[in-house]
Amino acid sequence: MAKKVTMQQIADQLGVSKFVVSKALSGKGGVSEATRERVIQAASQLGYFTQPRGYGQSRKAPEPQPAASGRQSVLVLMPNVRFQTPESLYWGRILNGVTETLERSGLGVVILSDQRLDAVTSILNPDGFLGLIGIGQISTPLLLEVHRIGLPTVLVDHEDPLIPADTVFAGNVDASMRLTSHLIGCGHRNLHFIGSTGFSSSFRDRWNGFRNALEEQGLPVQDAGDPMNALRGIDGADYEPELRQWLAKRRKQRTLPTALVCANDDVALVALRNLEPLGIRVPEDLSLVGFDHIHEAGSPSSPALTTVHVPKEAMGRRAALRLIERARDPKAPLEKILIASELVLRGSVKELRSEPEPVGGESAPIG
């Protein structure tokens, strides 16, 4: 049996005192952010967070409560930032799935949008909550504090390499491969991915699915360091000038691809409104697809956007059920749950009957 990893071992590896390690792992002040990050990284590498009866495992597992008793609540953490709010057509529907399932199970729900560590820890009574469900991007220090007290955690559309937790995602890689394969089947051979692959696991998985589909067909793939893979954030106000400049440059150089595969519907709609002033028609001159199907009642764009339907409420429901399962069996293996998604085919894709020429009539290298 492997020996237990101690704080002293972490301290010895980093050349600091055990006191510094203790303060860093407890989330207390008195250490710099850089030192805290070094301690967390070293602890993760040594297996401190995942060892049996180790960090975050001292809390006694709660006795399962009858669903109808309503004696326990679940903390739902959903950071309220510009692109991630309860009113969002994406995040809000995940939240609905979570809360409806918990309420049907007789559990109370406490929704918190402020993810400042002090704000969360002030209410984080481990005996008062069955567990925590995090929706979207949650900071590592906050997840570390939740893990430290041993509170069961399920993350939706987010994972942290340092914090072991159950996670729920859409099947992003598979769905992106099918979406890209659909374009290839329509005759497209010059495709480009648009979206910040460093922003989230979901965006990165969608890029991987796009790349896999092209590689399977022996088609050229843009370099992973392409500027369109590193757009600033996810809010259109941040990256739209950069995208507009890229489209204008490609239009001038006559090197536009025949199809753009966007990381989500918002990116696709931003691209669409910047194509029109350049005289580029969708889908006559360029095909355009998104991801998420945020406008399920009908696309607001013309033409209507081909996309991927992500079952958002189902993701929320599955996260709630997984948390209940985790609370009943704390020692069960962690799960990464993938929810299947479906293509929604609309009018933003043109079928090419023969090898196309890019806008302007010259060859279009991927670069």
From TrEMBL:
The keyword Phosphoprotein does not apply. The keyword DNA-binding applies. It comes from the Bacteria. Residues 5-61 form the HTH lacI-type domain. Transmembrane segments: none annotated. Gene3D superfamilies: 3.40.50.2300, lambda repressor-like DNA-binding domains. Keywords: DNA-binding, Repressor, Transcription, Transcription regulation. One of its GO terms (molecular function) is DNA-binding transcription factor activity. This is LacI family transcriptional regulator. It comes from Saccharibacillus brassicae.
